[in-house]
Amino acid sequence: MIRRFEENVPLSGYCTYRIGGKARLVVNVFDFEGLRRVLEIDGKKLVIGRGSKLLFSDNGYDGTVLVMRMERFWFLNGGDGLYSGLPKMYGNGLKFACDKSSDGFGSNILKHGGLRHDEVGVYAESGVFLPTLSRAACKKGLSGLEWAGGIPGTVGGALKMNAGAFGGDMSQVVVCADILREGRLVRLCAEDCGFGYRRSGFYKDDVIIGAVLKLDCSGHRDALGDSVPNESSLAKIELLCSDYAAKRVAAQPSGFSCGSIFKSVSRGKESIPAWRFIDMCGLRGIAVGGAQISPKHANFIVNNGGACAADVLALIRTARAEVFIKNRIVLDEEVICIGEF
């Protein structure tokens, strides 16, 4: 289903920066059939979720932007019966491929090493908002997504970037991912997703449909196989979620941003936050136009109102140049620039 189909739309409404020129066409996609139809449109295409790591050019995007609104998720508590029905939802005559499966779609992943007895699976479509999924898991007493409660992105984007926080990331919870690759629906096991620090091995034109994630069940199961948390495990998970939320509020600025601009820097076995190098260069608080390196967190560039993409890009380039001059370190960006700059 395609519910909204708009021409010459400002992209500022489709990213957390609230910055960007107009797209030639923006289509909101709510199901797999709608996605297939939109992918048949000629010309350049860009698939996005909430746009939490995107910086759209002031010149806009001369193509079609597909906004993934496929936002359903299911807890697979009673085995994989529900999960094995997913091919009927997404199939529609497409070919399936998965080297890890004998049935052509990979539903036996859950039966053979995908989930332990003390784990519960959840199938989440790519447009699911990570904080929503994190809260739902926590309410069920399922551990593994507490770190995701404050990440303003979707499952699809989190998979693509291997998003993470507080020592957790997507690579730790993924069982398998379903993608649309060259017209075929393909299931990739976790080891085939190419996860690394804030990156994955998905191809540039892959469209992520959904994924099975594994969560820890420290309670017990009822007669139907559903997870039933005990009070102590539920309280522990809720406390951890609250602790992470408080740490985010204390450390990160409010307002419009894309989160961290640069990845942490690896030095041997040590991982050093990028903000330390930016701080050493005395760049905390500097501004260009309506954009500013946050006085609260030097790895955040915030839109204080009226900022354009060129302002943000100028600060990114300044930070990279100064850190290289002072430390001979090339900072690697997390933010993705879209369009012509």
How would you characterize the overall build of this protein?
The chain is globular and about 50 Å long. It starts with a strand and ends with a strand. 44% of the residues are buried. It has 341 residues and is α+β, with helices and mostly antiparallel strands. Strands 6, 7, 8, 9, 12, 13 and 14 form a 7-stranded mixed beta sheet that branches. Strands 1-2-5-3 form a 4-stranded mixed beta sheet, covered by helices on one side. Strands 19-20-21 form a 3-stranded antiparallel beta sheet. A hairpin with a 7-residue loop joins strand 20 and strand 21. It is built from 8 helices and 22 strands. The protein has 3 domains: 67 residues, 2-Layer Sandwich (Uridine Diphospho-n-acetylenolpyruvylglucosamine Reductase, domain 2), CATH 3.30.43.10; 176 residues, Uridine Diphospho-n-acetylenolpyruvylglucosamine Reductase, domain 3 (2-Layer Sandwich), CATH 3.30.465; 74 residues, Uridine Diphospho-n-acetylenolpyruvylglucosamine Reductase, domain 1. About 8% of the residues have low confidence.
